[in-house]
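Anyone up for a design puzzle?
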């Protein structure tokens, strides 16, 4: 749908040191997948969504200052990066359904089908 009554200007500034900010630079594509999946649904609650990927991770997120009513849309870019860095550093991460879904996506992406 095109709204001809309004004109929006958007300035995008890339973060040049993003590979340094992601804890493990090999996880840059995983970070992209994380952002793509979670920020498309900005009204989704963080803790219930993350617990779908790694069950019982809620208490760890609560220790970091989140509550059950925190939504992805409430997080600023630094918090999203912090959330991903924590999430990807947990011991359960490699066996999580998120990692499995990412690997499936990565095979599709690597083969050039998107």
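Challenge accepted. My sequence:
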């Amino acid at each position: 749908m095109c709204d001809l009554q309004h004109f929006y200007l958007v300035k995008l500034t890339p973060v040049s040191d993003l590979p340094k900010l992601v804890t493990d630079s090999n996880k840059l594509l995983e970070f992209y997948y994380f952002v793509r999946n979670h920020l498309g649904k900005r009204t989704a609650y963080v803790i219930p969504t993350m617990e779908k990927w790694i069950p019982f991770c809620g208490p760890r997120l609560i220790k970091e200052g989140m509550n059950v009513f925190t939504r992805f849309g409430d997080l600023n870019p630094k918090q999203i990066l912090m959330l991903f860095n924590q999430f990807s550093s947990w011991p359960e991460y490699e066996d999580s359904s998120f990692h499995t879904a990412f690997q499936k996506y990565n095979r599709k992406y690597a083969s050039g089908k998107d």
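A detail worth pointing out: Residues 97-110 form the longest helix (14 residues).
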